[in-house]
Specification:
The protein is α+β, with helices and mostly antiparallel strands. It has six helices and seven strands. A seven-stranded mixed beta sheet has the order 1-2-3-4-5-7-6. Helix 1 (2-16) runs antiparallel to helix 2 and helix 2 runs antiparallel to helix 3.
């Protein structure tokens, strides 16, 4: 998700940039991109440690358990400013601004992640649609620890980030915000195909 956000920001900046920019502006953009790249690597290192920390957070050794729980709390607090539970049981996860001042809010409900809002330091807002995220983040309607029955057809197929970025279109909205949507003409065909196979049974 973090990598998707960073690459969409770069894509939006490139689309919005004037073709004849001043050299100092280009240099500042390069510096900003390098800062974002370093922050991304920092996040990836922390998130790569999460499976081990989660396992240790439930272990019987009190010292290891406490250390792992503290590490998780400190790590998440570095990136997450707050979590809000809404009346309809939707969650919004508000991230701390990144090194360039960009803020991200993730919207999550019972079916998993539904979208994200990006706010630039100058106040411009962009939205990442569910159509972009549906192939990136597995759905959680069954519950995080529930294993699907072996005979059930898997409904979710992961999507490569590079392939996804080829299909993403940035659409300007009337209020000058942009929306990232993923165009997938075969999505309806897949849905109808699954439905017809279900009716055939």
């Amino acid at each position: 998700m973090t990598e998707l956000v960073q690459r969409l920001l770069s894509k939006h900046s490139a689309d919005a940039a004037h073709p004849r920019r001043h050299a100092a502006k280009i240099e500042a953009d390069d510096y900003e991109q390098e800062l974002r790249r370093i922050a991304l690597v920092d996040r990836q290192v922390f998130f790569s440690r999460i499976p081990i920390l989660r396992a240790n957070a439930d272990c019987s050794d009190i010292e290891n358990r406490n250390h792992a729980r503290r590490a998780l709390i400190v790590g998440f607090r570095r990136f997450i400013e707050g979590v809000v539970l809404h009346a309809d049981r939707t969650l919004t996860i508000h991230m701390h601004p990144d090194t360039a001042g960009y803020r991200v809010v993730y919207i999550v409900d019972r079916d998993g992640i539904q979208g994200a809002q990006l706010k630039t330091p100058d106040g411009a807002i962009g939205f990442i649609d569910h159509s972009v995220l549906v192939g990136l983040v597995p759905p959680v309607a069954r519950g995080a620890n529930t294993v699907a029955a072996a005979e059930e057809e898997p409904m979710w197929r992961p999507c490569s980030l590079n392939e996804l970025l080829k299909r993403i279109r940035l659409v300007q909205s009337p209020d000058c915000a942009w929306h990232a949507v993923a165009v997938d003409p075969m999505q309806m065909a897949d849905t109808v195909g699954r439905a017809e196979r279900a009716l055939g049974r």
